[in-house]
Amino acid sequence: MSAPQTIDAAFLPEFPVPVREPRRLHVVDAPARRRVPRRAFGVVAVLGAVLIALVQMGLSILTTQSSFEIASLTQQQRDLTYQKQILYDDVAGLNSPQYLAANAAALGMVIDETPTYLRLSDGAVVGAGKPAEGTSSVDAMGRGSVRNALISGVPLVTDPQKAAEPAPATGAAPTDTPSAPAASATPPPISDGLPTPATR
User: Fold this and answer.
1) pLDDT digit string (tens) for 81-94?
2) Is the dihedral of CA 147, 108, 192, 167 positive or negative?
3) H-type helices in the chain, by residue range?
4) Are 112 and 147 in contact (CB under 8 A)?
5) Which residues lie below 8 Å from residue 169, measured CB to CB, with a gap of 6+?
6) Are 166 and 145 in contact (CB under 8 A)?
7) What pLDDT does residue 114 have?
8) pLDDT at 150
9) In three state form, how does the secondary structure of 109-152 look?
């Protein structure tokens, strides 16, 4: 073991010794209290409240006006939808087989018992090749027909002033006397309604 080494004080650095000076305290005057302008604050608050109320009223008026415009446009769209449906019904009535058959009968068209066809492959006429004769057995507007509400009041092609209505019912009872034989072999048109058995 070795002996502890001693340090010579001459080799140590010299540090200055701090000198403490006594604090000099003095009384500081309190800052003057700043007065808040109450009148200006009140004016700003009132103006802000009035401005907010005016903005809310303007927004409410614009919202109400927009809701009225939306209601008006909705009603207009509903009316246009109804008109479109009415036009669709009118077109459906004009395309109905009953109305087409009534117009065909009014124009003098009849059902041919022996139809004639044209073969496209060689252009040959297949069938009798003569015009149909007699009267049509289809009575689209007779008493036996079902009323079509879509063509009620719609005139025929041959008479634009007269509406296509079913034939009026007559009070005469149907007779059982045989009628004269028709020129065509098709059954006669039903004009007195469908035959039904008598029931109690």
Assistant:
1) 999 998 998 888 88
2) positive
3) 38-94, 97-106
4) no
5) 143
6) yes
7) 75
8) 77
9) CCCCCCCCEECCCCCCEECCCCCCCCCCCCCCCCCCCCCCHHHC
Long-range contacts of 157-162 (CB under 8 A, 24+ apart): 157/103, 157/106, 157/107, 158/103, 158/106, 158/107, 159/106
- What amino acid is encoded at 68 in this protein? F
Residue of 16, 22, 17, 164 lying closest to 94 (CA atoms): 164
pLDDT reported for residue 61 = 92
Q: Give me the residues of the chain with pLDDT under 70, please.
A: 1-12, 36, 135-138, 142-144, 162-195
Residue with tokens 């700003």: 44
Taking alpha carbons only, the member of 41, 144, 29 closest to residue 98 is 144
User: Which pLDDT belongs to residue 78?
Assistant: 94
Q: How far apart are the first and last CA of the chain?
A: 149
